[in-house]
TrEMBL record:
InterPro entries: CellSynth/LPSAsmb/PSIAsmb, TPR-like_helical_dom_sf, TPR_rpt. Keywords: Repeat, TPR repeat. This is Tetratricopeptide repeat protein. PANTHER family: LIPOPOLYSACCHARIDE ASSEMBLY PROTEIN B, TPR REPEAT-CONTAINING PROTEIN PA4667.
Length: 618
């Protein structure tokens, strides 16, 4: 049988490529055998033709070896440049941190505000940075398989897209590169790159359409399958398609753990715990590090298997020492095993590093693992919806949050969904929902959620100085949840309220001293501040000095300067008090918000004026 059509077979997917193509029309692989007339014969016609073929193959192999040597040289150069960049990055980071520390010591910079601002800027630019990296990595794949007629316009579009990305115009870059798609509609690398840019610009619908086109044109395109899976996994109704896309990606690169990690996370959301365990274990078998071991530990936790989770999470800790998520998961594993002492030791350490972290406090107060899961995550099918609803409530968008909570209600209620529904209703009509909030606070639900409901009610009652209702609500909560983290915070709130209304007594001081002696981990400064205010109000000035003088150098906050300066003034040390109060005007506000900080600064100025007025008489 003889084929007269010139062409060649692809050595990768065995697709027949007609004409003089240098790359496979199906998978894009550069063809190793030159295009030519292909003949099927039972016997070779002449020995010379075989010799010509062998000579041609030897030439091709020699050319490939030379190309390989050039690539190796190039990679060595790139490696050297990366090493130089890494050293420069370390020097720049160390120099920046030294500058921040020096400015903080000279009180020219608020390091905490600087850190928050820095993280905010980095977060804002993560999508742009990722898009730039991806575009740089994949644009070299576009031109080799482009149609010759579209080459000039494609090169121009690539240059303009590069310029737009450099200027931070991500949506415009995706749009500009997408304009050349009709000129080369089968260029799957171009389609994938445009889809990735749309995904980075959060234009998910367009990205999904293009990702489907890319895998349709190139079924073995690993990155396109991963992108499609990432887009589909955010849509619960398309979870089956996302799982299929991840299976395709895993088949293309059997050694890569990433598809299996994503698959494990997706199967967890679908409550396929056995499938999630198998996928997580396969990921660990391919790459054993902190990320894969943490995922395996979390799957064991979801299965209620604390005995298997602990060793996996301990191994993860060896790769990621001190990592918040690993340590938090390990504490949860100990809670599951009812080893509360070990869990509390970890949580105490984490809360000292992350004061008031809501997830850690949920874990600290949980009476059992089932209660923790229902209060923290809700039902598996509603977890992401509840996260989004809570974010919308934090952003003061109740209408959008209500729509999500209606969807949650159809899938199943949980303690977390009930709390968010109460929060939504209370925000609209506090008086009407007051009884519901107080009933929630004294219910059998998770103690931390009960405290959040109590705080919601107390803030409303305190603004209106309804003291009888405040006392009744606090007493009821403290009776129902006496050993919770909320009990400590509620007691502190009650004492702060009494002080604010001029009701502080020596008996109240004893209670504040007790709270200060046994603080909630990470909230010691809050208890110390309240104790300092009580001591000043009851004119125990020497006790204020004993309390604050040892820690002022370590915590030179605005309120510490004020309290210590006021105590010195009360003891007659006017010059020392004046110097300390003057320095306090430029001190770090610490945990105070803007309004509170201005109030304390006003008190400092008033006290300074009083000291100035007393100076002539002295």
């Amino acid at each position: 049988m003889v084929s007269e059509t010139p062409g060649s077979y692809c050595q990768n997917c065995l697709t027949w490529n007609t004409g003089d193509r240098e790359t496979c029309r199906k998978c894009g692989t550069r063809l190793l055998i030159l295009a030519g007339d292909q003949t099927w014969e039972d016997e070779p016609e002449e020995a010379e033709e075989g010799e010509d073929l062998e000579e041609h193959l030897l030439e091709r192999i020699t050319a490939l070896e030379e190309t390989l040597r050039r690539v190796e040289t190039y990679l060595e150069t790139v490696s050297d440049q990366l090493g130089k960049l890494e050293r420069s990055e370390v020097m720049l980071r160390n120099g920046l941190m030294a500058l921040v520390q020096e400015m903080e010591q000279n009180r020219q910079l608020d390091a905490h505000s600087f850190s928050e601002r820095w993280e905010h800027l980095v977060e804002d630019n993560l999508h742009l940075i990722g898009a730039r990296e991806l575009f740089t990595r994949y644009r070299a794949r576009i031109l080799p398989i482009a149609r010759p007629k579209s080459m000039s316009q494609l090169k121009r579009a690539l240059l303009e897209t590069t310029a737009l990305l450099e200027s931070g115009s991500l949506p415009e870059a995706a749009q500009r590169l997408g304009q050349v798609l009709p000129l080369d509609p089968k260029n799957y690398e171009l389609i994938f790159t445009v889809a990735s840019l749309h995904e980075a610009a959060q234009n998910f619908e367009e990205a999904e359409v293009l990702a489907r086109r890319a895998v349709g044109l190139s079924p073995r395109h690993f990155e396109a399958w991963m992108l499609l899976a990432k887009l589909l996994q955010e849509l619960p109704e398309h979870a089956d398609q996302a799982i299929e896309a991840l299976h395709q990606a895993a088949d293309i690169r059997p050694e890569d753990p990433e598809p299996r990690m994503m698959l494990a996370e997706l199967l967890l959301d679908q409550e396929d715990l056995q499938g999630a365990l198998e996928a997580a274990q396969e990921a660990v078998n391919r790459r054993k590090d902190g990320e894969t071991l943490l995922l395996l530990g979390q799957v064991h936790l979801s299965r209620g298997d604390g005995a298997q989770a602990v060793p996996a999470l301990k191994d993860a800790s060896a790769f990621l020492p001190g990592d918040l998520h690993v340590r938090e998961a390990l504490a949860e594993a100990y809670l599951l095993l009812e080893e509360r002492a070990k869990a509390f030791a970890i949580l105490q350490e984490l809360l000292n590093q992350n004061p008031g972290d809501p997830q850690l406090l949920l874990l600290l107060d949980a009476e059992d693992h089932l209660q923790l899961r229902e209060a923290r995550d809700g039902k598996p099918a509603t977890h992401h919806l509840l996260d989004e609803a809570e974010d919308l409530l934090d952003a003061d968008q109740p209408e959008a949050a209500e729509a999500l909570l209606k969807r949650v209600r159809r899938k199943g209620r949980s303690q977390r969904s009930e709390w968010l529904e109460l929060r939504l209703a209370f925000g609209r009509d506090p008086e009407k929902q007051m009884k519901a909030a107080l009933d929630f606070a004294c219910s059998d639900r998770h103690p931390r959620l009960c405290f959040l409901a109590l705080r919601l009610a107390l803030e409303h009652l305190m603004e209106r100085k309804r003291e009888v209702e405040i006392a009744r609500a606090l007493d009821a909560f403290l009776t129902r949840h006496p050993k919770s983290s909320g009990a400590w915070e509620a007691a502190l709130m009650r004492q702060a309220y009494r002080l604010m209304n001029g009701q502080a007594t020596e008996q109240d001081l004893v209670e504040v001293q007790r709270l200060h002696a046994h603080p909630l981990p990470g909230l010691e400064p809050r208890a110390r501040t309240l104790l300092g205010q009580y001591l000043l109000a009851l004119k125990h000035h020497q006790a204020v000095l004993d309390l604050l003088d040892p820690i002022l150098e370590r915590e030179p906050t605005l309120v510490n300067h004020f309290q210590l300066g006021a105590a010195l003034a009360g003891l007659g040390e006017r010059e020392e008090a004046r110097a300390l109060l003057q320095a306090g005007l430029d001190a770090d506000p610490g945990d105070l918000n803007e309004g509170q900080a201005k109030g304390v600064q006003g008190q400092i100025r008033t006290l300074l004026e009083e000291l100035e007025a007393e100076a002539p008489r002295a």
